[in-house]
Amino acid sequence: MRSAAVLVLGLASLGLSFCPQFASFEDTANEKQNPFNQLTTDEFNEAYNFIYDKFNLTSLEDAGTADNYVELLTLKPPKKYEALDYLNDSGDKPLRYAKAVIVHGTDSDPSIKTYTVGPLNQDSIDVHSTNTPPIPHNSRRTKAHKDAMMEKVFVYYALAPISEIIEDLLGRPWNLEEYMYLDERLNLDGDKRLRWLELAQKPDDSAFWGGFTGFHILIDFSGQKFSDWKVLKIVYGDRVWRGLQAFVDDYNDGQVANVMPQFTENELAHWTRRRPDVPVRDLEDRPAPISVSKEGLRYRLDDKENHVSWLNWDFFFAHNPETGISIHDLRFNDVRIAYEISLQEAVSHYSANTPTNANSALLDRGIGLGEKLTPLIRGYDCAEEATYLSTHNWNGTHDVVTPDTVCIFEMPLIQPISRHYGLNDASSNKATKLVVRSISTPGNYDYMIDYALFPDGTIEASASASGYLLQSHSSKGGEEFGTQVSDTTFGNVHDHVILFKFDLDILGESNTLVEKSIDVQKRKFFWQDEDEDGYESKVIKSANVEHEKGMDWSNNYDHWLLLSNLDKKTRYGYNPAYRIMPSTPVIHDTPGTQARMQRNAVFSREHVYVTKYNEEEETASSMYNMNLPNKPPVDFGTFLNDESIVQEDLVLWANVGMHHLPRASDVPSTLFLETKSGIMLSPFNYGTEELSRDLTNVSVWHAIGAGNLTAKQAVYATIDNVTDLIKTVEVYNDADSCGIEPFNQSLLGLDTSK
Ligand SMILES: *[C@@H]1O[C@H](CO)[C@@H](O)[C@H](O)[C@H]1NC(C)=O
Ligand SMILES: *[C@@H]1O[C@H](CO)[C@@H](O)[C@H](O)[C@H]1NC(C)=O
Ligand SMILES: *[C@@H]1O[C@H](CO)[C@@H](O)[C@H](O)[C@H]1NC(C)=O
Ligand SMILES: *[C@@H]1O[C@H](CO)[C@@H](O)[C@H](O)[C@H]1NC(C)=O
Ligand SMILES: *[C@@H]1O[C@H](CO)[C@@H](O)[C@H](O)[C@H]1NC(C)=O
Ligand SMILES: *[C@@H]1O[C@H](CO)[C@@H](O)[C@H](O)[C@H]1NC(C)=O
Ligand SMILES: *[C@@H]1O[C@H](CO)[C@@H](O)[C@H](O)[C@H]1NC(C)=O
Ligand SMILES: [Cu+2]
């Protein structure tokens, strides 16, 4: 993220009361460098050149199944305590290392291994193996170009002999221009490379998502050569054939009827389009309202170090190809709240009675969750005055920049953050938030990932999904698993489970997760009479979470999870804490549907987890977890090994997401509106008062004279002014004027003789 662009629109006066003038951010060089920034072009080149010779690499463009190539090159994040030494002022900037994932196709037992390369920019550079176990070659992603090409060629030639049958059944002869295919893997531990393909018509790359034909092929791609590969099954209608020959024989015997209607090309090309055929809504020809910071943006940005400060908040952000944008060293009023907040994984887990969707348990990190940040569409995806930044990825030979993949903006909530309107005073306090946004489009869905900061110390991480439903051709009995969303397709029911990591440090690294909850107890109080019944009371229970574990949010939200520092106390004797809670409904994966969600997705089974920080447990998933349900390179289950976690450095992992029951209004696009799901972290006895009280853009009124806000003095002022202005409200006995008899003190029965 090195180049920043600022939109400056100098519109000539149009005779309106104001014309939008988008200001530029305050460009400020941060005193510290960003230890989490992606490798620079020089660093990428240094690491790549070093391993290139060492491992007999072939460039990704030339590599095939029997070559060695780099499939991922990225920053290896610094060790937390080395980074803290630097960020806390005393230490040097941590040395820079690269993480390299290398496919060893030339080995007799080919596999994929993970290495650390570095230190970079120093006199000596070396490469070391890591503890990540070797990944079976059969579980590789199809990244090498000749590998992808071989796969297409195989599918092409495998189906060529039945091209006419395909034409008879699906309307068009078999070729790679007319059809695409979606594939889902069947194997659980990498000993095979089995993949179900469903043919889809392809009028264009988007409409394809609705073009599924119901023609499925199971192919065994195990091994490195064409001669190792074979077609195992064909599924069409409600029938299965084991091998091509059985299918061809049945067809020639007149046993295969055209039973599945297909979209016409024209219908298909239009299902993704807007509707130009209906009139514009009343007044919709006027531009929608926008927000503008009239006197300049209120954040400072160092666009080289990716450091932002805004209203007493400051933080670094970074991009990596595995998980996208992350936030680091997040401080409020100069005090660190979080060491890291980052996306970890996005799961879409389907159910269906068709082979591809029945096997769809997508862990999008394997499809490019962080790699496929798409350019944000200016004026639409972010606020009008947003600052856009680019990110860059190693594409196998080069450092390649994608522009406008991150945006930063401050936006009004169009509601006060606090308000009260009383007899003697009224106040309203402006609320805005600062947002860091990116949108990842690893396939059919677009995940909008927002990190938002609020002026009171609250943080929110959220994800919402739009894009095209993954559909499957209407199948007999399909209604049980989905909803018909077009003449020929179903949208199948699925879960979106999206995991975030929250490495918070509340006033230091030693913290404790405290669970407070409401317990109902019957209590009788000393001020009650003997024969009076007691009270069914809400009693606050509090307990430390002693060991690493996963938890679900309580049904009625009567539990509070507080990341607290037991070594510190506020004036009232409480341990300063941040509360973690859902800001919208969240889910975990539907229990009992775990066929392809085994050790690879243990993190998706509960709402929230707490673990002790461990350098080896930097992330909850990997690019290969999707392909290895039983033997994933990262098994989150091993993070939960019962370690004691009282006053330790803790990490919270929390899922957001939704159960997606598709319906007509998902077509053509699922709406961001109702798919938003987030986690909120907010101060809980973190101080002794609400922490946005120092904001000055407040409308405060105080009555001149008691109880009469009509006679008001309006102030836009600091707390000091306001305090000065508060008038003593006189209590007076003015009942006479209301026609009520005056109050007689002697009614109180007090003995006034003493
Ligand atoms: C990587 O980027 C370079 C430079 O833009 C380009 O020439 C090359 O084809 C790309 N390689 C791949 C595998 O896309
Ligand atoms: C290097 O890899 C190529 C295949 O990419 C292979 O043909 C060659 O034998 C390998 N060389 C060595 C020294 O291993
Ligand atoms: C970093 O600074 C914080 C706040 O002063 C302190 O609590 C923490 O122990 C320091 N950590 C390290 C590793 O120096
Ligand atoms: C505070 O908000 C009011 C109402 O929007 C606005 O008129 C005023 O200019 C603001 N003042 C400052 C200092 O931002
Ligand atoms: C409140 O103040 C207004 C303006 O000064 C005045 O007209 C009105 O009589 C006052 N009302 C009361 C109940 O004092
Ligand atoms: C608030 O205080 C400032 C600084 O003392 C002063 O300039 C300003 O006039 C005060 N505003 C009001 C409404 O009293
Ligand atoms: C108040 O009540 C007492 C006792 O009933 C009575 O003696 C006295 O006159 C009353 N005072 C007034 C002002 O009414
Ligand atoms: Cu969905």
From TrEMBL:
Active site: D364 (proton acceptor), Y445 (schiff-base intermediate with substrate)
Protein's GO biological process: amine metabolic process
One GO cellular component term: plasma membrane
Signal peptide limits: 1-17
Lineage per the UniProt record: Eukaryota, Fungi, Dikarya, Basidiomycota, Wallemiomycotina
Its EC number(s): 1.4.3.-
Protein name from the UniProt record: Amine oxidase
Domain Copper amine oxidase catalytic stretches: 291-691
PTM section of the record: Topaquinone (TPQ) is generated by copper-dependent autoxidation of a specific tyrosyl residue.
Domain Copper amine oxidase N2-terminal: 56-123
CC cofactor note: Contains 1 topaquinone per subunit.
Names of required cofactors: Cu cation
Keywords on record: Copper, Metal-binding, Oxidoreductase, Signal, TPQ
Natural source organism: Wallemia hederae
MF term (GO), any: copper ion binding
Pfam families: Cu_amine_oxid (PF01179), Cu_amine_oxidN2 (PF02727)
Family annotation (PANTHER family): AMINE OXIDASE, COPPER AMINE OXIDASE
